[in-house]
Sequence to fold (273 residues):
Amino acid sequence: MQRSRLHRCVAVLAALTAGLGGSALITGSSSASVSYSPPPANVKWDYEIGPAYTPPSGVELVSRDREADPAAGLYNICYVNAYQTQPGETKWWKKNHNNLLLKKAGGGYVVDSYWGEILLDVSTPAKRTAIAEILNGWIDGCATDGFDAVEPDNLDSWTRSGGRLTKDDAFALASLIVDHAHSQGLAIGQKNAAGQVAQGVDAGFDFAVAEECGRYHECGAYIDGYGTEVFVIEYRDQDFNFSCTHWGDQLSIVERDRNVKGPSSDKYVYDAC
Fold:
């Protein structure tokens, strides 16, 4: 069986077993096997990739930054910025891995202007291997800390690269971290990139985390690939209401403030359907 077809079968098996409270079993060429559990579908959830806090009542699943502790008794997704630099880590990247940061012809960094994050340079196999080594170390930490799954952010960073990167570059890196996450007993989700859901399933992603799929009328694309294993974040009231009306009986949908503040902030927003 070809590798992409094998991963598709694993993703389907994961989705099926999730509804039965089961787990997927991944068996390699050796006698060793590793199982992982996909997220519970269509549950109340929270998106806490900013400060971690006690989740609202009834929440069964939470996504938190890799440096936060998992929420006790819940299914926990570990947020990893896989394709761009976290603001607090930019100096570390520049000092230790400057060659892995995407640069313009003149030597300036290519920056996601909205978040002020430098794009990682995934343009060559050698650089992807080096980046994957770093990311996989972080994924190991997620597993050690007790997370159940990984959410590698900014898969779609090639769209902000000014043509310097391609989607194939992005998915080539994805293949390196998807396999590793599974080997550590973690499910792993496709973050955004609705137009590449089929490629995401082929890469081995088990579920999707979709920002503003209601706003941009993309939720159906994620459902086509991942069924009810889709976890939606909306940032505007009208988009949250739209998503709840159309998919609230199928998907896990939350409204958050765009900067994912904690309850102590007057900017904090949380709702779920």
Remarks:
- Residues 1-22, 26-31 have pLDDT under 50 and may be disordered.
- The chain has seven helices and 13 strands.
- The radius of gyration is 18 Å.
